[in-house]
Amino acid sequence: MDGLPTEQHELLRRHREAALDLVLVVASAYTGSTPLRDLPAGRALLREPPERLVPVAVSAAAAAVERRRFQQDAADSDRSYAFDSADSFPIEVLHALGRRRLPFAAEDVELLLDLGSTTMRPDRVLGRVLEIVLTALVLLALPLALGSQPASAASALPSVRVVGQPQPVFDWGESACEPMNYPDLPARAFRDFEGGVQLLISHFDNFRLIGPSLDRLAIDCDPVLLSHRSAAPRRFQDREWIASIFTRDGKNVWALVHEEYQGNRHRGRCPSHRYYRCWYNAITLAHSSDGGRTYTQAAPPRNLVAAAPYRYRPDRGPAGVFTPSNIVSGPDGAFYVLVRVRDPGRERGTCLLRSRHVGRPRSWRAWNGAGFTGRFRNPYRARPRGGIPCVPVGQGSIAEMAESLTYNTALGRYLLVGLAPPGANSIGPKARGIYFSTSPDLIHWSERRLVTRAVTTHNYACDGPSPLAYPSVIDPESGSPTFATSGAHPFLYYTQFRYRGCRQTAERDLMRVPLAVRP
User: Fold this and answer.
1) Residue 318, class by beta-carbon neighbours within 10 Å (0-12 exposed, 13-18 middle, 19+ buried)?
2) CB distance 415 to 517 below 8 Å
3) pLDDT tens readout for residues 89-130
4) What is the mean pLDDT of residues 48-75?
5) Residue 390: C-alpha distances to residues 172, 342, 387, 396 (Å)
6) Domain C-terminal end among 154, 189, 213
């Protein structure tokens, strides 16, 4: 729309995209002869949560102003203008929403007010239509102008939003070295000692992308770590995914490994023969002394970092310690990582682990609510007792998010990003998707806020869009050797599934999309 700055054009575009599915249904039923509130589709629209009506209101205001401008241009050129229901529809929407107190952010109100002042020529006498539009704009802006709680809270919160189009990083169809060579955990990257960048394609056989920068990467078909596929759960060496990376010099690289004992794959170990029910998980340690070309592990049990406090129990899963986040530095000089924990009948959530020596498996301690004194014991070498020795952080606020953890310099806080369902106090539309939360100390977390709606494996509908998974924030400008910090303009990396016939296939691409982070 002419007269608006670039950032407001972008904001308006996002609002229109968010409102499209709601508005199309109502617009198709609207003829101009029946008020919106008397139409079934109109009543359904007005029952939507206030957060979902904000994009509708902004889009309707813009459409009303655009219609008025078309009318003015026609009058100036002595052309006739045929009115139809499309001219009155946005006005009808604004009338209907004018009584609602909607949670506008400050940038929304600024856009609403600028629509009226920057898109019309000042020498025109306002017609009745534009008067109604401007009146509606003022009414819509009132909740924020009066300092209503939803609006002030929204404007005070940091934002993380998508600001561009998806870009391919790894195309399975073109680049896969073997059928199972696909990204199956959040992307992790580091700068190696030769000046290059490596990005891991983690699965139970682990590969890497290599190149001079994150913008120029190619697959290396020599695997960096192959799973041991041990049938003995006490070895913690069945199927192994590289999950977290730590290095100071780019040559000696430590990796936290997500290790799955899959009892269903070993004869006699899983009566139900079901993967989920016989899933027993642990975190182990691997090391590379050649700059990430190959990783090796200490012989069991010296490879174990964290496990459930009890031995493998068939058909009682999933259970254990899962999917480490990035490893980040704390203000005290120690190193921290988030992990998911599942202890059937007991704890379930995201726990915080701490160590001053990443390369020492037994040095990691868990936050237990009072300090980092929770110690993981090997249940095959000590008598199993108690539950998992940690108290989940951010309970209720972050669900079980642990996919991506960075220290964000634009926010001056730690930034956690992951997939989650909506929560009772989550901010934004109540939808499953990618959320973020922030923390000053890794223990206390803000209520999660929606970055973008997403189809996941949990809400996928047959013949609908294929789901995505494993979001990870990576900033090419990060000063960290492992990209453990991010700034105002990072990328969100994620795995895009490609379903066929409503079924999951091996085809999974690694994608990225630019983000904007604002305090």
Assistant:
1) middle
2) yes
3) 777 777 677 656 677 776 776 676 566 544 444 334 334 444
4) 74
5) 38, 11, 8, 16
6) 154
Percent of the chain with pLDDT over 90: 64
Q: Are residues 493 and 428 in the same domain?
A: yes
User: Is there a domain that residue 284 lies in?
Assistant: yes
- Other beta carbons within 10 Å of 501: 7
Do 240 and 384 lie in a common domain? yes
Query: Which of 123, 154, 185 is the last residue in one of the domains?
Result: 154
Which residue is it, tokens 């998508």? Answer: 162
Residue 46 buriedness (CB in 10 A; 0-12 / 13-18 / 19+): middle
**Spatial contact of 133 and 95, defined as CB atoms under 8 Å apart:** no
Q: What whole-number distance in Å separates Cα of residue 367 and Cα of residue 351?
A: 7
CA-to-CA separations, 113 to 29, 59, 139, 265, 384, in angstroms, rounded? 29, 13, 11, 62, 65
Distance CA 318, CA 330 (A): 30
- Residue bearing the bigger pLDDT, 183 or 24: 183
Q: Quick one: 455 exposed, middle or buried, by C-beta within 10 A (0-12, 13-18, 19+)?
A: middle
Average pLDDT for 407-421: 97
CATH number at residue 181: 2.115.10.20
Tokens 């002394």 sit on residue: 289
pTM above 0.70, yes or no: yes
When pLDDT is averaged across residues 469-498 and rounded to a whole number, the result is 97
SS3 state of residue 341 = strand
Q: State whether 294 and 356 are in the same domain.
A: yes
